[in-house]
């Protein structure tokens, strides 16, 4: 930072008369610029105030180099506040002034700041082009502060594009310029390194870098750095299964983000906090934070679209200004301006076409999400209709028996014959509640299911032991191939719930003294699971609607009560795992439920 200020100081001396009052005003400008830089990330409004004051003094001095510098700082402050249109206008003014006076280093910084504006608007590829333009100039003048900043920004942009090799290259380059004099910005660099290592699965390296991020943020009271450090720490603990620690850091990150009022930070931290609550089984808090995340999701997306449209609007106004200015030029210059306008209009049309395409695609996505929510709402209504019906009967029965006993209308000996029925009803009630909770958990997990390699053979063995009492009640044999150790790369918890529901369903509709068979068929990129029973079977109409929300209360072969929810849950879970579920059935002969799951471990 000091090297940059010294450069500006020398530049000012070359262009300002050596009068003492002017020297004093010049130093006042440079001091305000330095204060502006130190406040840019954590107090952008105050940074803007200082930059505007510095610009007033620079205009009074009529010093073009200082005017260019202060215009650049005004633009940078607007960028930090999220006012991308105002930022672009001021930085373009600074760029034009620096180019006309050949202020190479100031012009280079403006190019990098334009890259920052594109990155804030989600246009990382365009941002990279501007960052590289500045980098080429800064290498020649060896401005260590800007070399650190630009390499760090390039690493962040490539990280946003999931290009990890390029991100590593530029962040490694930035590490060569970690000078103590701009130590207040090191937390941004350490966080980028931590996020990159976390995305690559290098948890130990990520943990060390998060510590450095937090230490640097604490030393310089950087709220943004503290938010991102705690948020990434929560994600790291989540990945290691340390859910209570993850929740603690997620709360800290969310509270700091909420205090800052920065929508992007609230959007990121509310999602992490919702995931922590959900994985701990605290579904109410998880649902509340998920709603907040979705609220800010729309806000952040809308801001991104507005920023892109503002960039387009700016270029339209820029070209109209050039057309007006061309009237005062020579015929040759007018011809060149017209050609430039034509090129500009072509660019605008291309940008407009791209923007329209993006808006249309986003509109389709929103409509698709709306349809999904409507389907979910219908499905939820059917679930609650069944649940309300199936809950009343067992609760009323149990309540009646307890009331009679409490009022001493029946004796202990008289109540004993009712106990098996009470046990059965409470067991059915517990199964119903488990299914509802499983469905709710599946809705919260959504599409971001974690995956690991686990033993299918062990899962089936565990389920056989767990359901042994139910199998014995109807003398049903559950068989599968134990001779081979089958491995699957998927979400083990969801696959276990899926198989349990299918086996319980098979037991319910199987005849006494029959067999249930589980087949595992391994393919190159997928694994097929088959649950085959010798039960009552289904007709073609039932097979068509069994996975499409056609829920009805059902009775097993020996009067077992159900609610039709289990198989609908299976369909939801399979979709969440990116697979498919099918059924083949014949009345009186039994059914085959076939689940096909993607499996990265197959064939390895």
General description of the model:
The chain is an alpha+beta fold and 604 residues long. It has 23 helices and seven strands. The protein has a five-stranded mixed sheet with strand order 2-4-5-7-6, covered by helices on one side. Strands 1-3 form a two-stranded antiparallel sheet. Strand 6 and strand 7 form a beta hairpin. Helix 7 runs antiparallel to helix 8. The radius of gyration is 33 Å and the shape is elongated. The N terminus is likely disordered.
Give a quick set of tags describing it.
604 residues, alpha+beta, five-stranded mixed beta sheet, 23 helices, 72% helix, elongated
**Average pLDDT score:** 79
Largest pleated sheet = 5 strands, mixed
Helix content: over 70%
Helix- and strand-based class? alpha+beta
**What is the string of helix and strand elements?**
HHHHHHHHHHHHHHHHHHEHHEEHEEHHEE
* Helical stretch tally: 23
Morphology call: elongated
Flag low-confidence runs.
1-19
User: Rg, please?
Assistant: 33 Å
Order of strands side by side in the largest beta sheet? 2-4-5-7-6
**How much beta, percentage-wise?**
5-15%
End-to-end separation in angstroms reads: 53 Å
Oligomer: single chain
The number of distinct β-strands equals 7
């Amino acid at each position: 930072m000091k090297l940059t200020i010294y450069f500006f100081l020398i530049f000012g001396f070359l262009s300002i008369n050596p009068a003492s009052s002017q020297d004093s005003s010049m130093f006042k400008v440079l001091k305000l610029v330095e204060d502006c830089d130190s406040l840019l990330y954590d107090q952008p409004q105050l940074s803007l105030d200082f930059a505007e004051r510095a610009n007033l003094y620079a205009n009074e001095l009529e010093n073009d180099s200082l005017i260019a510098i202060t215009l650049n700082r005004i633009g940078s402050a607007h960028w930090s506040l999220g006012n991308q249109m105002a930022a672009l206008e001021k930085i373009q003014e600074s760029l034009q002034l620096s180019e006309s006076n050949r202020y190479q280093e100031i012009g280079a910084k403006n190019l990098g700041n334009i890259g920052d504006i594109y990155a804030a608007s989600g246009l990382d590829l365009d941002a990279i082009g501007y960052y590289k333009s500045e980098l080429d100039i800064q290498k020649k003048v060896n401005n260590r502060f800007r070399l650190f900043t630009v390499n760090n920004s390039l690493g962040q942009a490539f990280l946003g594009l999931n290009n990890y090799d390029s991100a590593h290259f530029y962040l490694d380059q930035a590490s060569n310029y970690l000078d103590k004099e701009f130590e207040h910005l090191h937390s941004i660099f350490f966080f980028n390194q931590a996020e990159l290592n976390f995305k690559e699965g290098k948890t130990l390296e990520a943990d060390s870098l998060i510590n450095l991020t937090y230490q640097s943020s604490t030393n310089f009271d950087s709220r943004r750095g503290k938010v991102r450090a705690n948020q990434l720490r929560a994600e790291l603990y989540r990945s290691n299964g340390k859910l209570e620690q993850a929740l603690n850091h997620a709360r800290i990150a969310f509270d700091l983000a909420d205090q800052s009022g920065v929508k992007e930070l609230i959007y990121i931290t509310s999602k992490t906090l919702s995931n922590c609550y959900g994985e701990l089984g605290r579904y109410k808090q998880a649902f509340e934070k998920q709603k907040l995340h979705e609220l800010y999701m729309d806000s952040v997306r809308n801001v991104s679209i507005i920023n892109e449209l503002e960039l387009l609007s700016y270029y339209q106004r820029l070209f109209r200004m050039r057309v007006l200015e061309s009237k005062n030029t020579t015929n040759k210059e007018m011809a060149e301006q017209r050609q430039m306008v034509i090129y500009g209009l072509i660019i605008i049309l291309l940008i407009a076409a791209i923007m329209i395409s993006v808006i249309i695609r986003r509109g389709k996505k929103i409509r698709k999400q709306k349809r999904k929510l409507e389907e979910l709402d219908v499905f939820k209504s059917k679930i609650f209709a069944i649940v309300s019906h199936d809950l009343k009967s067992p609760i009323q029965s149990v309540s009646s028996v307890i009331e009679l006993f409490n009022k001493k209308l029946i004796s202990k000996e008289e109540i004993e014959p009712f106990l098996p029925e009470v046990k059965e009803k409470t067991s059915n009630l517990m199964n119903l509640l488990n299914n509802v909770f499983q469905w709710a958990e599946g809705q919260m997990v959504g599409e971001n299911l974690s995956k690991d390699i686990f033993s299918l053979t062990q899962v089936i063995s565990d389920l056989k032991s767990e359901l042994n009492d139910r199998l014995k009640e109807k003398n049903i044999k559950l068989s599968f191939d134990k001779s081979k150790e089958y491995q699957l790369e998927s979400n083990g918890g969801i696959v276990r719930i899926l198989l349990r529901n299918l086996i319980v369903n098979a037991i319910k509709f199987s005849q006494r003294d029959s067999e249930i068979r589980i087949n595992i068929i391994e393919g190159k990129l997928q694994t097929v699971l088959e649950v085959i029973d010798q039960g009552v079977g289904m007709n073609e109409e039932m097979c068509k609607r069994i996975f499409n929300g056609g829920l009805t209360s059902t009775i097993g072969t020996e009067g077992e009560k159900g609610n039709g929810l289990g198989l609908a849950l299976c369909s939801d879970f399979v979709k969440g795992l990116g697979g498919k579920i099918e059924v083949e059935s014949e009345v009186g002969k039994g059914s085959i439920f076939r689940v096909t799951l993607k499996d990265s471990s197959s064939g390895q």
